[in-house]
Amino acid sequence: MEPDPFVRGQAWPGTPKVPHPRAKPSDAFRLPVDTWAQAQIPVGVRLELVGDAEELRISYETRGPDAGIRGEAGTTFEVWRGGRAVDEVKAEHPEGVARLKLGDAGSDVPAIVYLPEGMRPAIRDVTGVGGDIEPAPMQPRWLCYGDSVAEGWLASKPAFAWPAIAGRDNELDVFNLGYAGSARGEIVSAEHIAELDAAVISITHGTNCWNRIPHSTGMFREINEAFLAIVRQGHPETPILVASPIVRPDAEETQNRLGATLVDLRKTMEEVVLGRIDAGDTALRFVDGLPIVAESQLADGIHPNDDGQHALAAALGPLVKEMVR
Q1: For residues 258 and 307, what is the distance between their CA atoms, to the nearest angstrom?
Q2: Would you place residue 71 in the very low, low, confident or very high pLDDT band (cuts 50, 70, 90)?
């Protein structure tokens, strides 16, 4: 069967080189190189289906042999159904056929199939074995913009990235627009978000404005103002949740080369958002990211481990769902 009706979390049509893009391919020339590099990895793109089939057969090709610096994370197909993992199969390169058990949760319970995203697969065909399958009902669309934390870096598998957990637990169609090493509030990304339909939007970035490309507090203020203004042009009434950066011990009190600490940048983001709320944007909400993840829940001092990913999902997922209501 044609896979497109089953695909979730993909906003733009694919190309031969980038089958499941997470940024607008025709606009890639305007994006920073690091943003487009990450956007070619189909983080959060998945298949969702219902039906009484006992197994799912997926024919696929891969663009790379492994997940690179992320190790084993993102090298398997994994099925979740009824709130639990049902089956997992290692992907092959350069092509293969994966057979996955679909469990016994019931034919009307959606099955979610997470992709071997690090290998950049192209799904060619999906077939039910021992029964029928059909695309799962559509759920409210959540655009989740952010950096490597939103992308789920150092989660042990794609299903454990915090947006994936939050989407699964709160019945949301999450579109992961997290770009590791990037997501510095680029205007092009704001324009992409403004063009897309959405029931709710979350914005969670800032760490890469401390050291990747250092920003002063003034620069960071203007970027956040501009980013929100452009997103609002396309979404005048859509609920938007803004969460400031989670804890990063090496950055909290350390000035970057332009004199800003992460504490400074976090406070600046809060001031921008609260200022817009005070000015009448009642569909905007701010969350302080600092207390959400404990230092002990960081895998490398920057990125959450699986416990940290679950903490973020537990803190932000219900808020996103509430804003949809």
Answers
A1: 33
A2: low
The token pair at 287 is: 């969350």
Alpha carbons 154 and 70: distance in angstroms, whole number: 7
Helices and strands, counts by H and E, the chain: 7, 14
Q: Is 157 helix (H, G, I), strand (E, B) or coil?
A: coil
Both tokens assigned to 37: 């590099």
Q: Do the beta carbons of residue 45 and residue 36 sit within 8 Å?
A: no
CA dist 197 and 270 (Å) reads 26
- Tell me how far apart the alpha carbons of residues 57 and 138 are, in angstroms, rounded to a whole number: 22
Instruction: Kindly state the DSSP code that residue 298 receives in the 8-state scheme.
Output: B
What CA–CA distance (Å, rounded) separates 289 from 308?
Answer: 12
For 128, the enclosing helix (H) or strand (E) is strand 121-129
- Dihedral pair phi/psi, residue 261, rounded to 5°: -95, 170
Whole-number pLDDT of residue 325: 76
Task: Evaluate whether 122 touches 60 at the Cβ level (below 8 Å).
Answer: yes
224, 190 in Cβ contact below 8 A? no
Taking residue 28's Cβ as centre, other Cβ atoms within 10 Å add up to 17
CA neighbor of 260 nearest in space, from 310, 297, 187, 207: 207
Question: Cα(295)–Cα(303) distance, rounded to whole angstroms?
Answer: 10
Could you tell me which of 102, 203, 96 has the C-alpha nearest to residue 143? 203
Burial class (CB in 10 A: 0-12, 13-18, 19+), 325: exposed
The span from the CA of 227 to the CA of 216, in Å, is 16
Most distant CA pair in the chain: distance in Å?
Answer: 63
User: Which residue did the predictor score with more confidence, 66 or 291?
Assistant: 291
Give residue 103's Cα distance to chain centre.
26
Instruction: Tell me the whole-structure pTM to 2 decimals.
Output: 0.97
Name residue 148's amino acid.
Answer: S
Which domains does the chain possess? Answer: 4-135 (2.60.120.260), 141-324 (3.40.50.1110)
Please name the residue ranges forming H helices in 137-248.
148-151, 162-170, 187-195, 217-234
